[in-house]
Amino acid sequence: MIHLHNSATGQIEELRPAVDGIIKMYVCGPTVYDVPHLGHGRFVLVYDILRRYLEYQGHGVIHVSNITDVDDKILARADSENRQPSQVAGEYEKVWWKVLDDLNVLRPTHVPHATAYIQEMITFISELIEIGAAYIGGDGVYFEVSRIESYGLLAHQSLESMRSGARVEPNPNKRSPIDFALWKNTPNAEWAWESPFGRGRPGWHTECVVMAQDLLGSSFDIHGGGADLAFPHHENERAQALALGSSFADKWVHNGFIVVGDEKMSKSLSNFVTLPELIGEDDPRAFRLLVLQSHYRSPLEVNSTLIGDAARALERIDNALVRFDRHYDASISHVQADSEILESFGQAMDNDMDTPLAISILFQGITSMNVSFDNGDLTKAIAIAKAIEIVVRVFGLGVTRSELVLPDAVVELFLEREGARQRKDFAASDRLRDRLLELGYGIEDTKEGGQIRKL
Ligand SMILES: [Zn+2]
């Protein structure tokens, strides 16, 4: 079974699903007021890869990821563009799914929208008020943090040190500066909902805790998100759930941030690149491979050189699968996938998703497959190729045959040229290379044989 780093304990722990064979995972989704940035791309890929791996292991995964479609940022954009907030949210949600489809991210099992849960949130807040864990301040409803002894668990700080270190501006409506808002009263706003505590909008921390528990129950296996969400967002979700007696998430999983140059990518710095800008330039799988080449908890550096390297590495994978495809026929269908490769792959992934190691196992496999094909050891080559194909699929790096953009005629010529090169018939080899060039395909000769790509 997979072991994952749990931010709540700081330990790498075995995942033990409460229901055998079913893994319940909640991942905080985007606030839809702008095009997604690289940080979004990283988190969706990290949890997509985790989900695909758990499914490959035979578990059912209930993957819930929300859309925050009520938020001050959406309202601000709507105001400045003289539009309805729902139009803004609708537009950027469309962009979101388009980018996720381009990245080959599996759709979550459930995609709750905050605006569809307003009544549930009002009921939830009322319950918190009833038990004395929340109170009505002048401008909304606040959660009384001192009610939760273990508050600060995800921030790795004690309640006491948070209280004394709070740098929040004093707010006369709050009993303590670290109390947080569950409901914000906006009596004059057009975009607001009626509630027993006044006309207004729910807070973001309440949104996720209500939707997660509605769809996954009061306890579930994994709560994921970017490291920047651990505090205060996840801490506050957890506090509300605990106040009402839920055990909530068993494992808190957080992925690291994106680094562009030497700095954390930020909208306030000039190093900001949107996700569609990045993946529009190249094969979108290059970004996925880059994400896989770093451990999910480490900072991830992104620049055009690294994306270019990843795109070239993809060609090795595609060429390996083309080679497999060309050699495949019914006579070798009984050959089992190489168990050694699959075992090492599983060990790497079970160890807190060590995808950098798993990727190096994949590329070593490609090298051995090519050597086996060159030596004429077809059975071994096919066994390795089958293992490679499985790993590629689990990582979401696969393309269907037609997407390899290598028409049959091109593959024929390429293989013919490979044969000529192996026979050291250089005249024929050069002629075939020129013919491929005319068709718009380049060949690069490597130790492992020729690599073909569209020019
Ligand atoms: Zn959330």
TrEMBL record:
A motif ('KMSKS' region) lies at residues 264-268. ATP binds at K267. InterPro entries: Cys-tRNA-ligase, Cys-tRNA-synt_Ia_DALR, Cys-tRNA/MSH_ligase, CysS_C, Rossmann-like_a/b/a_fold, tRNA-synt_1_cat_dom, tRNAsynth_Ia_anticodon-bd. SMART domains: DALR_2 (SM00840). One of its GO terms (molecular function) is ATP binding. It catalyses: tRNA(Cys) + L-cysteine + ATP = L-cysteinyl-tRNA(Cys) + AMP + diphosphate. Its cofactor is Zn(2+). Residues 344-406 form the Cysteinyl-tRNA synthetase class Ia DALR domain. Keywords: Aminoacyl-tRNA synthetase, ATP-binding, Cytoplasm, Ligase, Metal-binding, Nucleotide-binding, Protein biosynthesis, Zinc. The keyword Chaperone does not apply. GO terms for cellular component: cytoplasm. A motif ('HIGH' region) lies at residues 30-40. Monomer. HAMAP family: Cys_tRNA_synth. This is Cysteine--tRNA ligase.
